[in-house]
Design goal:
Two copies of one chain form a homodimer. Chain A is an alpha/beta fold and about 350 residues long. The first copy, chain A, has 15 helices and eleven strands. At the A-B interface, helix 9, helix 11 and helix 14 of A face helix 9, helix 11 and helix 14 of B.
Chain lengths: ~350, ~350
């Protein structure tokens, strides 16, 4: 198989020259799109939508039909892996994800094992294959997973948390148990991402949504070390092409240089970091992905365009930038503003290179 | 009036030599203490507790009776100022603070005015005077306020927020209105803090709890500029002694050097920043306050002691460190662990200097 027709995104991740700055948006297939809400209604629930390869494929393609995006991302949830480990993922109405059987006792932790990506998680691989077929070589497909630390947070807390009391108590009081969870989870993430690559994912992203709640020392010990293991375990090339990797620790700006040193091709930035300063810090070691505040999409179109140009100007022309938001797009985003954003990124970055 | 008998905290803020590292804890008078829960029950509600100078004084002193703390902090809420502006502060059971009349329309914003600290806010000044009398020159009393940006967040959102959609929409779509709110609020904060100093506060702290949700450019424009105004407007000395100021932007680590340059005496750090690296960055420009992860207090006492020593060792001996948590103490903290923390900070920092 050859490269996709539009491989701008892949080249930017590898810091190769591109004619313009590629753009995609975290959570680009989501509730801000009426067509997504339609499909989700038909699916019955968010989880059924994730578990149906046909419907997951359908919603993955929806934003690409509307906007000139440079990549598609697998529609799925970051918690599929612990669900496959038997924790029982569910979504309570109006709340975030929860587990029926969070890790509470030592024996539960000792009993954890790596799920077979081709058994409990086959539905994800089927979705990847189906999306690749449907994309028909137009733009690349991104696979993804939660990071070991972030998955462990949900597995121990049982859901989202304000204070991470349970997992931090475990990490500080029983570090050997914490490391056991992280070790099993890291191996599960590697197997899961490699199966996605095997099924057709052309780049992979690891979402470390909760790494930023740790102290620097704890981040290195409980999150970064396992991100490094995951990156080291990934299939580096497939179909004769490199498979670039992106690591995104939300709230991890203070540790940018350390993240850039773990072997990933690109680092995702949230919106708190000036991307020009970030580029100076990482030099040519990695590409950077980001980092417009998603809240800017609530502002009038001319402000959206102005702030998008500001991010592009801060990075400057030249290779290694994938434009994105600094966090997932909000369900309250006016869809028209996204068109303005995507078109501005393309037009302004072309003019930067002219 | 003379200095308090124990002025270690004030000297550390001014980067003068101290025999040991002083320590106090954000939210040290709080729900983790059974005696606090008793008083609060008696008060009827959190707000009645804040508004009764006698009871506010009582709970301010409670942690000092238990622990060898080096400072007292006025017991109050950060939202007293917008409450005095007429927004109607209330606390729904089990939720955070809310306003009955959040800022929704332009005319409401244009009508905002600076409340007289000796009218609607006299109860705070009475509490400060009463606490000073009760402390009887033992340790210094810290006054405080929310930052203009943080107060504005609550005033516009109407309460805590997940995405700051309303205030960010206002800031990006109608920046002149946003600046009007911030300008009035900054003047209100200056009048409020100066009245606290007049009433007896010996140091002041500005809590910028939500500055960290902004991009770097927006932080400079909407938060830092007003923090600088507030600091510039503060009474610098009282009773023949300097009144040091502390600025704390939670999640503001990326902007530490800029915060250190606005004229405050000390910068508060949350727990995500390695305090040794922070000290290298700020040099001798400011003192640093922080920064143990409050979650460490859930761990066994020997881990609490070990992690407290780690923070002290990272900062190193020498002047300019006030030990604190990186955020308010959790209501789930075992009170005995706080004693271990305070005693470890004193003992280890004495041995560092020996």
């Amino acid at each position: 198989m050859s490269r996709p027709k539009n491989d701008t995104f892949l080249r930017a991740l590898l810091r190769q020259p591109t004619e313009y700055t590629p753009v995609w948006l975290m959570r680009q297939a989501g509730r801000y799109l009426p067509e997504y809400c339609e499909t989700r209604k038909r699916a019955g629930s968010f989880l059924q939508l994730c578990k149906s390869p046909a419907m997951a494929c359908e919603v993955t393609l929806q934003p690409l039909a509307r906007y000139d995006l440079d990549a598609a991302i697998l529609f799925s949830d970051i918690l599929t892996v612990p669900d496959a480990m038997g924790l029982g993922l569910y979504f309570a109405e109006g709340e975030g994800p929860r587990f029926e059987r969070p890790l509470r006792d030592e024996w539960e932790i000792r009993n954890l094992s790596v799920p077979d990506p081709h058994a409990e998680l086959q539905y994800v691989m089927d979705a990847v294959s189906e999306i690749r077929r449907a994309l028909d070589g137009s733009v690349p497909l991104i696979g993804f997973s939660g990071s070991p630390w972030t998955l462990a947070c949900y597995m121990v807390e049982g859901g989202a948390s304000d204070d991470y009391r349970k997992i931090k108590t475990l990490a500080y009081a029983r570090p050997e148990l914490m490391h056991h969870i992280l070790d099993v989870t890291a191996r599960a993430v590697i197997a899961y991402l490699n199966a996605q690559i095997e099924a057709g994912a052309q780049a992979v992203m690891v979402f470390d949504s909760w790494g930023g709640v740790l102290s620097e020392a704890a981040y290195r010990e409980f999150s970064l070390a396992y991100l490094e293991k995951v990156i080291a375990g990934l299939t580096r090339a497939r179909e004769g092409q490199p498979v670039p990797s992106i690591v995104f620790t939300k709230g991890g700006g203070l540790w940018l240089e350390s993240i850039a040193a773990i072997g990933c091709d690109a680092v995702g930035l949230d919106w708190t970091f000036d991307i020009g300063r970030a580029r100076t810090l990482v030099g040519d070691r990695v590409a950077l992905q980001g980092n417009l505040d998603p809240a800017i999409l609530f502002a009038p179109p001319e402000v959206v365009a102005q702030e998008a140009r500001r991010v592009l100007d801060a990075y400057g022309p030249g290779p290694g930038h994938v434009f994105n938001l600094g966090h997932g797009i909000s369900q309250f985003t006016p869809p028209d503003h996204v068109a303005v954003l995507v078109d501005t990124v393309h037009a302004h970055s072309r003019s930067q290179r002219a």
